[in-house]
Write a structure and sequence with these properties.
202 residues, alpha/beta, Rossmann fold, 5 strands, 14% strand, globular, binds thymidine-5'-diphosphate
Length: 202
Amino acid sequence: MSRGIFITVEGIDGSGKTTQALKIKKLFETKGRKVTFTKEPGGTKLGAKIREILLYEDMNPVSEFLLFASDRKEHIQSLILPSIESGRVVISDRFHDSSVAYQGFGRGVSLEFIEYVHDKVLGGILPDLTFIFDLPPSKGLERLHSRDRIERAGLEFLTRVRNGYLSIAKTSDRFIVIDAGRDKESVWKDVEEEILKRGLIV
Ligand code: TYD
């Protein structure tokens, strides 16, 4: 059986990460791998309900983080872990680094608290590889039509989120920062090269 692989894509809203994640999915599938493509928030049935609350209700940042964490726990238990254990490639459009960047750096929830909760929630599951699609927030906002309240939070907020991503990127070599301010093909070339370089495709 092939080894399970867990890849996450991160970045501010409008960074184009979903397009690139779908290309990663295709790459692995053309190499004969079974892929589970998923997202946060809302990767499970319960998660879809949590997502509705998160995107449209105003709330305290700590409550917000804990709801994202609930969504995440369900996601890990019912989809991510079983998929990795059965040797699949799991690609998640956002995972725990989103909470560090958005609720931690963006909204000021204590990073120690987030780390403590994640320690319980993740149960040792960490991505093998995390792509951070980096983009100036003004560019990201241009590409968006402000679909929900988190995306409407604005330039200053997204600047803190972006800087949060760039700062956590320095903490582990599972992170790869990609300049997402270019055309899709140039971005993809870098993404594909990193996947090949890391020996994830055999
Ligand atoms: P979504 O519509 O999935 O946006 P995107 O296409 O940008 O991924 O909405 C997810 C929103 O939730 C997005 O603005 C980022 C935010 N979010 C957090 O604030 N914390 C988290 O832990 C996660 C997973 C997402």
